[in-house]
Design a protein that fits this description.
Length: 138
DNA sequence: GCCAACGTTGGC
DNA sequence: GCCAACGTTGGC
């Protein structure tokens, strides 16, 4: 079981859009970055991830689950690009802002902090539980 | 809206 | 295979 973080601009694809897809979920398409793609190729059904809003909000707003493993991205004919399908699991009680994450020494190694531009990133089990704690989830 | 960081492209 | 040029992302 692995943990991940999916980054999206709310104006392009927001948490609300994701929730609207319900149980059926949706492809996490449009990724054109090798590192992000490689991360998606490592995902297994049942893996969990944070849904992060970049740009205006800059906060973890929800939890998602991987429901389909890596397959070709339907938005391109280019065989290089794969993606997974994810569904919204639940909204977190309190959004965890980038500011909070940056302010927590235990999270100083998160890719969100160290590799800002990576849109699909791995999250360690420790980081996962710390962010959940900040979200008021446990 | 600006700019730094970084990934990708293409010429050599 | 290197590296300069360029494009994109995302925080501020």
């Amino acid at each position: 079981m692995q943990y991940w973080l999916f980054k999206s601009e709310p104006s392009t694809w927001s948490w609300e859009d994701q929730v609207a897809k319900g149980e059926a979920g949706e492809e996490w398409d449009g990724v054109r970055n090798y590192q992000a793609r490689n991360n998606m190729r490592l995902m297994k059904t049942g893996d969990l991830g944070f849904f992060y809003h970049s740009q205006s909000e800059k906060a973890v707003v929800g939890i998602v689950e991987v429901i389909a493993e890596s397959h070709p991205d339907s938005t391109t004919d280019d065989a290089r690009w794969d993606c997974v399908d994810i569904r919204a699991v639940k909204e977190v009680p309190q959004a965890v802002t980038l500011e909070q994450i940056k302010g927590d020494l235990r999270l100083s190694e998160m890719a969100l902090v160290k590799n800002t531009r990576l849109s699909v990133q791995p999250v360690t089990a420790d980081e996962w539980s710390i962010v959940l704690e900040l979200a008021g989830e446990k």
